[in-house]
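Final paragraph of the annual report: two paired records, presented back to back.
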Amino acid sequence: MQAAVLEGVQKLFIKQKEIPRCKAGEVLLQVKACSICRTDLKCYELGHRDLKLPRVLGHEIAGIVVETGSGVDKYKKGDRVQVSPGISCGHCEFCLQGRDNLCRRLKIMGFNYDGGFAEYLLVPAEAVLSGVLNMIPPHLSYEEASMTEPLACSLNMQEALKITSSDTVLIFGAGRLGILNALLARNSGAKKIFVVEPLERRLEQAEKYGFAYLFNPAKSCLYREIMAITNNRGVDVVIPCCPAAEAFNSGLHLLAAGGRFGFFSGLLPGDKMKIDLNLVHYKELTMFGAYGCTSAHNKQALSLLASGALNVKKLLSQVISLEEVEKGLKMIKTLSQLSVVVSF
């Protein structure tokens, strides 16, 4: 089989590898689609704390079962499945609380195990047993199903924030995750959703989803405009879906007293901008962190896609082959595409 193997920083090679064979409890998938994440780009350019090299990257995976090991009776050849990439221990305090994304023994496909930038993927027995494989309905494409994991991460954030119909929501970034968070906020009933994005082509993409309040901070005074719309109150919820400290800081200033801040995207290392955390104190703000997603979030996200409650077809802006994966990573870096999916 062909696989994109990362052997070091910016050392990615298309290689021929043996197709894995199933042992007891394991499942072999033929990968059909794997979306490229900014985390994949970080691994490629800088490495990652959880990354063990050499490694096949890719953790937003959809495929078809081609073989099952002995003892596997829940899945059969021909099943279309989405992969929840986290493999937790199942018995620590966080796993027992249903917060398996915080498991201290968490292993992730595409980091600790080989991921989806390959023609075949072997799902370990402990992952199969913990239920990481979710059935894709016939009407949902593999490319759409590969959006499940980023949607699940967004669900994790919004679950913490508990957005309701009375909330005014401000989202920084109209990339894939920004739009997914805006769609979820609307699905929760939020009537006023502000989306901030300096790239006009991304604002145009957000406009296709019917969001009325779109702002380019390079062309207008964001603070003045949002305060005017909210009668100088500010917003109830802020979610920065980009790693810029400027967005983080602006969000704190634009939150109303008692507002909720979703720390969804980590900050860039070395960003020198001073963040006024005293605002958390003076305005009694509440901050919520969200890291990745649980297996349950993946199931919930796939259900939303399957039911049509959220439609991600417009987010599928670029589909590439495995041989083009390095080119795809560069597309993510330059923000030239809203999303990039490796399709097999």
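The closing record of the year follows.
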Amino acid sequence: MNAPFRFTTCRAGSEPALKRDIAAHFSGELTPAFMKPQFITWKLRHPDFVPPGSLSHFARVSGISIGLCKSVPELVEQARQCAGRRPVRLHVFPRVTDEDGVPAADWQRVDALTADISRALQQAGVLLETRLPFATGDLVLDVIVGETADEPLFLGCHQHQPGMHTQPGGLPRITLPEDVPSRAWLKLEQALAWRGWDKMDARGHTTVDLGCAPGGATYAMLQRGMNVLGIDTGEMDPRVDKLAQEKRARFEHWRAPVGRVHLDDLPQDIALLLCDINLSPPQVIPEIRRIQSAVQARRMILTLKLNSPALEDRAHEFIEAIRSFAPQPVFATQLAGNRREICVTAG
């Protein structure tokens, strides 16, 4: 259905980048209609314009806007009309989220509401799909929960496509532990969950981690039993070496700039290439390309720093540059744990 409104959710602070991105790439066909923190709806200027399912890499979730519902029965009636005879997946998630993860108490509230909505949908004859994996074209009902109990529920829907999040709201239930070296741990775990790579047995495989210090992403890979070559001029947290010993995994730290690494010294048969270097994409992407030409990693998880509006507005250019040399397919999103950056995965 080509409904007249679309919706998007995003990280706190990315609303301006999201608005600029959609304005630039849809030539005014979508205009902002309603805004709250981390949430924007859009009006289609022309009824015959059909936007893609995913509106922007700055939007964690986007889809058709059905509207606000003051009660569960009202929501169920709207959802029933939307679904027709099709089975649907139900995603209920909070609108406002913290960059370090949604607190357990908030998920408890959401889970209780999810159970209520699920029962009501089934009583109304709506078939709920729960089988994994997701299939292209699966219809997903998006129920967005406000900050207070008296705020109406928002109902939208989208059709699942490759590269879209399978966790409600793009919010994997991962929070930043206190005992890891850095936030890079959280971003990496969220990236793995987004692509479904968290389910793979990575034991014994090798990762090259560019910009590894102080060691959050390296720590996450060692926890999974991977061997890691980290390249960074900075110091590593001593917990990294300790964990490597406990896991009986190989960990090397080359304390040098990535640009000075000799390609002939790099290991072969690399399962995963990571990069989270605190430099701009025009500086980092050529180095990623150079390293990848030598190691031919089967998969990549890259964090691109977009610390200015000018860099945010060039995100599509950077993604296409990566697509030119990376294993396919290439997807990009702004993870829940990202700040002014996006995550690009390949393979």
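The longest helix spans residues 104-123. This concludes the annual technical report; the extension proposal builds directly on these records.
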